[in-house]
Amino acid sequence: MKDLDLPPAPTPFKPAFRLENPRLVEVYRTWRDLAGTRLAPARKDIAPAKFKEVLSNLFLVDVVDNGADFRLALAGDTVVRFLGSEYTVGKLLSEVSPSPFQERSFVFFKRVVEDRVPVALGPVRTLHEQHGYFDNEAVVVPLSEDGASVAGLMGAIHLTRALFETPQKSQGKRQRV
């Protein structure tokens, strides 16, 4: 069969300055203000009062072995409800059952660590199997204790009900469109 040279699938990731949700835009602006001329703010600079409007949607992640793995350090109520019992505070991402959601999370977090810049996602249909009826826009920003390496990540999510769902005939499950 002839190689059709199909273009690669579009990436769900984008620069943080292209965020659409106003609350996520504000998280990104606050992060930039806290960073100033540094690579990124330190975790101690992330005061809850500065993110009061979005605390429920925020999460902090520890970078393990320069990005080989990631440990959920703190999560707001909306994030906890979204993640469910699989990915809980203190758990490594590698300990979560393999899934498209887990794979995308690894790629998302690694991209921030390797590029040392904020990265945004979506809005796209979530890959979390229990919440496939949500569209998700998210931003993840680096945190640095030494001004040179990424030691942690701060993220925020915005979930909206997906506009379209179609039933999957064979299994009675919802299919992402």
Structural description of this entry:
With 177 residues, this protein is an alpha+beta fold. It has one domain: PAS domain (Beta-Lactamase, 2-Layer Sandwich), CATH 3.30.450.20. It contains 3 helices and 8 strands; from the N terminus they run E-H-E-E-H-H-E-E-E-E-E. A 6-stranded antiparallel beta sheet has the order 1-4-5-6-2-3. Strand 5 and strand 6 form a beta hairpin. The two termini are 28 Å apart. 28% of the residues are buried.
Number of domains: 1
Broad shape? globular
* Superfamily (CATH H level) name: PAS domain
In CATH, what is the class?
Answer: Alpha Beta
H/E element order: EHEEHHEEEEE
Pick out the low-confidence regions.
166-177
Distinct helical segment count: 3
Q: How many beta-strand runs?
A: 8
Strand order of the largest sheet: 1-4-5-6-2-3
Distance between the termini: 28 Å
Mean pLDDT value = 85
- The helix content is 10-25%
Structural class: alpha+beta
CATH architecture: 2-Layer Sandwich
Question: Quick recap of the structure?
Answer:
The protein has helices at residues 22-35, 77-83, 100-115; strands at residues 13-15, 58-64, 69-75, 119-125, 134-143, 152-161, 166-167, 174-175.
Provide the descriptors you would attach to this structure in a database record:
alpha+beta, Beta-Lactamase, six-stranded antiparallel beta sheet, globular, single chain
Question: How is the secondary structure organized here?
Answer:
Layout: E1 13-15, H1 22-35, E2 58-64, E3 69-75, H2 77-83, H3 100-115, E4 119-125, E5 134-143, E6 152-161, E7 166-167, E8 174-175
Antiparallel strand pairs: 1-4, 2-3, 2-6, 4-5, 5-6, 7-8
